[in-house]
């Protein structure tokens, strides 16, 4: 049961990490990839 609670608590954290990583890709990776051309 503790594992179930931990898993449910992880889901919002994973979603936040995905959202943060998407912002990081837009800010960091895109200028490096497309700025050369």
UniProtKB/TrEMBL annotation:
Domain of life: Eukaryota
Descriptive protein name: Uncharacterized protein
Originating species: Nymphaea colorata
């Amino acid at each position: 049961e503790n594992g179930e609670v931990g898993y449910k608590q992880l889901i919002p954290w994973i979603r936040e990490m995905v959202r943060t990583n998407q912002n990081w890709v837009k800010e960091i990776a895109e200028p490096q990839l497309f700025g050369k051309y």
